[in-house]
Amino acid sequence: MPQIKIYQEDHIPSPASRIWSAFTDNPFAFAGLWAVVSLLLLALFGPFIAPYSPEHQDPHALLLAPSWDPAGTVEHFLGTDDLGRDIFSRLLHGAHLTFGMALGIVITALFLGFIIGSISGMMKGLKSSILSHLLDALLSIPSLLMAILVVAITGPGLSNVFWAVGIALTPQFVRAIHQAVHEELQKEYVTAARLDGANPLQIFWYVILPNISDTMIIQTTLGISAAILDIAALGFLNLGAQAPSPEWGAMVSQGMDNLLTAPWTVTIPGVAILCSVLAINLVGDGLRSALSPIRN
Amino acid sequence: MIRYLIRRLNLFLATSLILFIVMFIAVSKFPVDRIAALTGVQQPTAQQITRITQDYRLNDGQISQFIAYLQQRLDGDLGLSSTSQNLILDELTAVLPASFELGFFAGLIAVLFGIPLGVLASLSTNKITQHSIMAITLTGYSIPVFWLGLTLSLWFGVQLGWLPISGQINLLYEIDSVTGFLLIDTLLSDSKYALSAFLDALQHIILPAVTLAVLPFTVVVRITRSAMMTIMEETYIKAAEARGLHTSTIVMRHALPNAFIPVLKNLGLMLGAFASYAMVVEVIFSWPGVGAWLVSGIYQRDYTVIQGGILSVALLIIFLSILIEIMHTALNPISRKELYAAN
Amino acid sequence: MPLLDIRNLTIELDTPHGRVKALERVSLTLNPGEIHGLVGESGSGRTLLAKAILGIPGHNWTVQADRMMWDGQNLMEMSARQRRALMGCEMAMIFQDPMSSLDPAISVGAQLIEAMPENKTISWWKRAADKRINAQQWLHKVGIKNTQKVMSSYAWELSDGECQKVMIAIAVANKPRLLIADEPTNSMELRTQAQIFRLLSKLNQLQNVSILLISHELETLSQWCDRLSVMYSGQIMESGPTADVIAQPYHPYTKALLDNIPDYSNAEHHKTMMHTLPGSAPALQHLPIGCRLGPRCPQAQKHCVNQPSLCHQKDRYFACHFPYHNEPCHDEPLTKS
């Protein structure tokens, strides 16, 4: 017997569950989330799944086309490059470098940006503007220039990419968090909390932090996609990951020599970058629209 | 208003000073001889060493050294390129216009196509139109620019053979540099091939400019769309409708001026990313601009080129972003409201 | 012939909780040259009604009506373009919040000039100047002295009262026949309120503009209006000439509203409770069965679970089974259930 509802009672969902239901209502965002989760798994376990090692050269299979091409074989699913290395395995190994490093950079930048941004945001007057404008100068150096500067000092290499992109990203986080904190401080409920006798730490922790978390989430998704693109661009320009490395941008640049004869050596890593950035942007977009009714 | 302008100028000077400090520290960390890092002179004679030591006060303390460094740089002395032994300033003035040309074209494409498409996306009630425009912009936003450039040149340059894929102009044309901007120079030139040279230069700029325009284009579309969506729900739009104005009048006169404000603001914020993208595009299409020059400088470990390039580009970005902010305030009466309220 | 005659207007809204009837079977008659007051609590659907009359529906509305006659033409059958044309010159509306009804990016003067009618009799190059003079005259008429200064300012530089005057000038510049004023004095001080109401009443007398005045203050409305309609929860409860309604309300809700008006004649004892209805207005997704006032009504009886229909008696309309004048409506048989 179906249950009869006698009383019209509204179930009022909590903010988190409302965001979740708004997020899952958007099929694209949900698909993006699945893609990001699988990328994350690939970044962690990719090397274990990969059929070959990234440097394994098969002299009998140079520039082999992908398996859907008549000339391709299933052994090398996405084909091979000019040294006979399996592109599929290299992609799996590269996920760790490109995607994993982007995550690492963003987490570090978020951490630093959160600390500096909230301190400078909570302070007033000259101190605050010195702290925030100090990083404006760094913000005005494009990430690629920053990378060139770092490479000029330390020489090219994957670890330098970490510093270069990190230094370029941190000011963005600082600025976003500084502005969010600063805007929140103007709100009436902060004044009300202050009149209640809350000290700055309490105001920050209980009043401001819950209201800037959405800014932080959105900035993080933006940061990850920017970091992936930057790491790949540096790899492409040979300023980051060096030649044999399976970093995706470097793979594109290694494939450049055979662009005309074997376009898949360029296309496949490019598509991999595109898909992972697209997935993150889909998630970010979905989050933004799910959060927006709460933000306004 | 004057107070506001002075504050912006102050911000510009302070930010530039910090930039110079960062560069000064970076120069001292370059893995070469300090004299070579500062001036680019490779095997200096004893005479040169004493002069450089004197100019840069290399025997004094760090602060005194920094002041000397600042003086030299502000005098326009950026040193010599260690590979070509030309003055950095001359090389810069040779490559900057090409970058400006490319950036200007890309920005123009982005704004001219982006704003109408954004308005269209916001006004369309058709779900398919909306979704497809959003899908295109999201893809454009996620696409790695180097890969896009390669793919475009592969398709349009190699396979279809429609457009040239490298350089600024066919090398057969000899164009005297007057303004440095090639498109203007070809028109000014009195050679009888001036028009065909102009068309050739135009063909050369299409692919790089389109590649570079993808990022600002998608940003403009998205910002315009979201701004228009919020504005069309505002009371003053409803009030304008209640006055019986035509929808196109409302969009043109009331919604667009309001929607343009956040677009301008975001264009300012995007400058850094835009410059990064421009460098990659220049490298791919062998465009003789600052980006390609800088990247070749780093390949050759030409530290004075790196310094000069970074300084000029960063200063330019600081200047442009402050300029955009001032424009934003000047064009936008609402931001003056804050100034008005503050006084 | 009435200027505006609405019968059984129903507006349904699509909300995340499903479709709700925000306005149900609302009937309203407005004669030329009268000020008609529409009183009700916030959320009772007054603004919805105003926007539906004007023709600027929201994106999630479904509007249905038996008829909406505007001067002999049926508004329901008109195209959007015709409605828009009608909005410009025959109907006008002023909004609750005058400051946000003016475009912040354009000066007030430019918006005023934009709203001025084109004078087709003079040559086109003189029209711009003519519009400008016209705009200044209208500003002067609504009681703004320093017209030059106001015209060159932006909306946020003016006070609420000034903005509302500008809005009125914009609204009446085309000489509309109906002006819908949706809480024109919301959040304004008393002196400004009085100015605005006096202005509206003067417009009504001099230009013969009909005004639909929306407010939640019965007291203010009773001073300025010829006729009064009382809304509750998306339905018209009672309607009639102001003096009659005030003197003898038929509907318990009207009576409750009248009792709400503070009485300063010292007839009440010290610290007496103010008369209010128990409970609060129902949410639109949880409407009671039958009469929407039912659960709160002091006169409610068993029969009230049937929805009362609006009935007409000598210039008065009311929707109640047990009205205060003890003459139940004869339009509907009491033993319907």
Automatic annotation (TrEMBL), chain A:
ABC transmembrane type-1 domain location is 99-284
| The keyword Electron transport belongs to this UniProt entry's keyword annotation | no
Q: Which InterPro entries match?
A: BP-dependent_transpt_permease, MetI-like, MetI-like_sf, OppC_N
Q: Where in the cell is it found?
A: Cell inner membrane; Cell membrane
* Main location as per UniProt: membrane
Q: Which GO terms describe its cellular component?
A: plasma membrane
SUPFAM superfamilies on file: MetI-like
Stated family: Belongs to the binding-protein-dependent transport system permease family. OppBC subfamily.
- GO terms classed as biological process: transmembrane transport
Q: How does it sit in the membrane?
A: Multi-pass membrane protein
The protein's name in its UniProt record: Peptide ABC transporter permease
List the source organism: Shewanella colwelliana
Automatic annotation (TrEMBL), chain B:
Q: Which PANTHER family match?
A: DIPEPTIDE TRANSPORT SYSTEM PERMEASE PROTEIN DPPB-RELATED
The record places domain ABC transmembrane type-1 at 96-328
For whether the record's keyword set contains Cell membrane, the answer is: yes
The protein's matches in InterPro entries, at most eight in alphabetical order, are given as:
MetI-like, MetI-like_sf
The keyword Membrane belongs to this UniProt entry's keyword annotation: yes
> Which gene codes for it?
sapB
**Secretion signal, residue range per the UniProt entry:** none
How does the UniProt record describe the way this protein sits in the membrane?
Multi-pass membrane protein
Which GO-annotated molecular functions does the record name?
dipeptide transmembrane transporter activity
Q: Which PROSITE patterns match?
A: ABC_TM1
Q: Under which name does UniProt file this protein?
A: Peptide ABC transporter permease
Q: Where is this protein found?
A: Cell membrane
Give one Pfam family: BPD_transp_1
TM region(s), chain numbering = 9-27, 102-123, 135-156, 201-223, 267-285, 305-327
The UniProt entry's sequence similarity note says: Belongs to the binding-protein-dependent transport system permease family. OppBC subfamily.
Q: Which UniProt keywords apply?
A: Cell membrane, Membrane, Transmembrane, Transmembrane helix, Transport
CC terms in the record's Gene Ontology section: plasma membrane
TrEMBL record, chain C:
Q: Which residues cross the membrane?
A: none
Q: Which GO terms describe its molecular function?
A: ATP binding; ATP hydrolysis activity
For the biological process aspect of GO, one term held by this record is: peptide transport
> What keywords sit in the KW lines?
ATP-binding, Cell inner membrane, Cell membrane, Membrane, Nucleotide-binding, Transport
Gene3D superfamilies (UniProt xref) = P-loop containing nucleotide triphosphate hydrolases
Q: Superkingdom, according to UniProt?
A: Bacteria
Q: Pfam families given for it?
A: ABC_tran, oligo_HPY
Where is it located?
Cell inner membrane
Give every ABC transporter domain span.
4-258
- GO CC aspect terms: plasma membrane
What the entry lists under InterPro entries is as follows:
ABC_Ni/Peptide_Import (IPR050388), ABC_transporter-like_ATP-bd (IPR003439), Oligopep_ABC_C (IPR013563), P-loop_NTPase (IPR027417)
Q: Which NCBIfam families match?
A: oligo_HPY
Q: What family is this?
A: Belongs to the ABC transporter superfamily.
Q: What is this protein called?
A: Peptide ABC transporter ATP-binding protein
Give the source species.
Shewanella colwelliana (Alteromonas colwelliana)
**What does the organism's lineage look like at the top?**
Bacteria, Pseudomonadati, Pseudomonadota, Gammaproteobacteria, Alteromonadales
